[in-house]
Amino acid sequence: MRRIWIIASLILIGCCGYTTRAMLPAYMRTIYVQPVENKTLRPLLAENLRDGLVLAFTRNGRLRVSSDPSADLSLTVTITSYKRTAAVYDASRNVSQWRYELRFEGECRDQVKNTVLWDERKTTSEVLDASMDEEEGIRKLLERAADEIVRSTLLAW
Question: What domains, with CATH codes, occur in the chain?
């Protein structure tokens, strides 16, 4: 019985202090999300992605979004391509699912220490039912991209 208590105690002690939360340095409190650049011909992608980023950071709560360009962090994102292609056809050769794809480049800069936290090219994609209109598909795609950017920022430490 004593052996079981010792093993159980060691297991519990080993789990103490573990968290999946980002461990941001104490001085990291604010982030400035620069206006997103759109190199595609699709209108409103940049504005909608920036709005999604502000919402995702606000919802997460670990960094406060600032309108001050001299915030602790500065995030720059450029959308380089958007496309919607048929992913699945039904027996009648009608599209039953669309693949939405967004490619973008991003950089997050620590403005306190003047270093780059991350600088990446990313591709985000979603396969969605064809009954959904394209605007709704784009909304879901941009939401996914914003979540990935927030995750990259918080886990860059």
Answer: 25-154 (3.40.50.10610)
